[in-house]
Amino acid sequence: MKDKIVLITGGSAGIGLATAEALAEKGAEIILAARSEEKLKQAAQLIESKTGNKKIRYYVADFSYQKSIRSLAQNVKKDYQKIDVLINNAGGVFPAFKLNDDGLEMTIATNHFAYFLLTNLLLDLIKKSDYARIVNVASDSHYNGKIDFESFTKDKGYFITKAYAQSKLANVLFTAELAERLTGTQVTVNSLHPGFVKTDIGNKNTQWYAKLFWSLASRIGGISVEAGAKTSVYLASSEDVKGVSGKYFDKCMLKDPAPLAKDKALQKELWQKSEQLCPIN
Ligand SMILES: NC(=O)c1ccc[n+]([C@@H]2O[C@H](COP(=O)([O-])OP(=O)(O)OC[C@H]3O[C@@H](n4cnc5c(N)ncnc54)[C@H](OP(=O)(O)O)[C@@H]3O)[C@@H](O)[C@H]2O)c1
Predict the structure, then answer these.
(1) Residue whose C-alpha is closest to residue 142's, from 157, 155, 160, 161
(2) In degrees to the nearest 10, what's the CA dihedral of 146, 152, 155, 156?
(3) What is the pTM of this model?
């Protein structure tokens, strides 16, 4: 990965930080993007001290808001001539229905629309790489997901796990449709489940009982962030998957995604709806 430039969203903590560290260890130039400057600074220092790799840079961006994503893309385009690997990883859970400034429900805005918008805005830069890869961190929660387009902008009986599963199904659908649109280019895109990973994702934004449940469950059953980063690192760097596109992976292996995720009409409908609610230009 020595001459590769890797942009990782949500690289300031959890699976994203462990992914960044592993790729820095392989010699890649790392760009972290997340919302807390303090955490980004600490993450960059930590990666540098652990790996000795000095090519670590960061940008502050809030992936819940399109304005912030557009400004990140502009800055990255100003500073870089190419991106070899984009890892869409930043994500979260939200306990109650809330619209963001763009009129989008927060879960779908952060977990799907951010992937959709950032990827499309950076696609020209990504295509400048000889063999570029896009990696979308999804989840096995997508097997429980259904897409209700109205729920993107209206409260249709919001429930935290339902909204999360929908957003992660959207990641897998988006991956398949993007792969189709990238046919004939040197860019591949795949999605993955990282495993059940001991991170703070369930401790942010949530009520005390959800925090307690997440802390206990992830401490007892969760894998380490290093283990959780393995499939992202594999898809970003392994020769095994060179040229493989539009697929879903778990434990560094191909896996059949949910039947709904393979629905071509739904893949296209999600793309069109996403373009309407989140113009690329
Ligand atoms: N943990 C699991 O068991 C698990 C299972 C399946 C899938 N996943 C997926 O894995 C990905 C990473 O999750 P994780 O468990 O590593 O979570 P995490 O520890 O909470 O880390 C998430 C990262 O994304 C950043 N982030 C979250 N919301 C953001 C926003 N609006 N704007 C900018 N940055 C934001 C966080 O920054 P802050 O630190 O500032 O919040 C952090 O750097 C997510 O897509 C998640 O859905 C996780």
Answers:
(1) 161
(2) -30
(3) 0.97
